[in-house]
Amino acid sequence: MKLLIVFLIVVCQMLFILFIYKLSAASKISLLKRGILSSMAKVEHRESFLDALNNRILQSGTGINLPIYMAIIMVSSFSIYMLADFLTDSKIMAVLMAGLGMYVPNILIEYINKRKKTAFDDAFVKVLKRLSASMKAKMSMLQALEDAAEAMSIKEAMKVEIRQVLSDYAFTANMSKAFYNMYERNGSEIVKSVAMSIEISRKFGSPLDKVFDSFAMAILDRRRAEAEAKSKLASTKTTANIIAATPFVFGGFMKFIQPEYFIPVYEWKQGLGRIVIVAMYAMVSLGFIYIRKKCDVRL
Fold first, then answer.
1. Three-state secondary structure call for residue 62
2. What residue segments make up the domains of the chain, in order of their start?
3. What is the pLDDT along the chain (299 residues), one digit of tens a residue?
4. Which of 6, 86, 105, 208 lies 20 to 30 Å (CA to CA) from residue 265?
């Protein structure tokens, strides 16, 4: 029975997402009729809902595909439903709260992307330093990239990116375009700035080795500032975690050792107490999310 309820919840979630997609598509049609959107938007409009969702998931570069995405929604919805049913003793409240499971995959993708971006920027620092040192040794930009693609100090994933840059350069004969393609694959603003710097250097002849050193120092300074800010906010995060977990741990513990403990609270004012309990959990959760957002340092 519980599995059937979760299945119905997931179906409702997908119908809701489909409704939002159709609503967005309808607005695109309206804009197309007014001539506001380009012909490229017409091609995008023909894309089905599942294809659009699958493409968005694949473009995140997290290794998650559509079946895994749906499985995460089902597992998270089932887990939230079971927890909410256990804490509130209300099927209706549990079903409503299980709808939050549709947000879990996006949160997971955002978290993985953040970790990957941090690791990418750290690896790119070594590439910039290597390029700067090579160009100071009178190598050309192309020779410096070929040297970095074989360097032992560069991670293999970054070597693959450098080889892709070399491959793009072989086809376009435009180094700034090759780096811009790298930016489109990874979304790193540092790579975008490097692409612009290469274009400016090509036009005005400015030395790239100093530019690469400046970018590398900027990334390192940002990392140091982030580490310092995170160390100062560590106690705040720990306090928020403890305060947010206390009601759930206490409620779960009391329900486990004495299931009838909350019955008087649930039945207060003809069931109003159950709504108060849910509101309390919701306020604690929102407060926790707010504090975590404020403690999330991004420089």
1. coil
2. 1-111, 115-223, 224-299
3. 555 655 566 566 556 555 555 555 554 445 444 444 444 344 444 455 667 767 767 666 677 777 788 888 888 888 888 887 777 777 777 777 777 778 888 888 888 878 888 788 888 888 888 888 888 888 888 888 888 888 888 888 888 888 888 888 888 778 888 888 888 877 777 888 888 888 887 777 777 778 788 878 888 887 788 778 878 888 888 888 888 888 888 888 887 887 777 777 777 777 677 778 778 888 888 888 888 777 776 66
4. 6
Phi-psi region of 86 (alpha: psi -120 to 50; beta: other; left: phi over 0): alpha
User: What Rg, from alpha-carbon coordinates, does the chain have?
Assistant: 26
Q: Which two tokens stand for residue 122?
A: 């750290």
* Residues, the chain: 299
CATH number assigned to the domain with residue range 115-223, chosen from the 4 options 3.30.1380, 1.20.81, 1.25.40, 1.10.3210: 1.20.81
Tell me if 175 sits within 8 A of 201, measured CB to CB.
no
* Structural contact between residues 143 and 131, judged by C-beta atoms closer than 8 angstroms: no
Model pTM score: 0.61
Question: From CA 144, how far away is CA 207, in angstroms rounded?
Answer: 14
Please say whether the beta carbons of 13 and 77 come within 8 A: yes
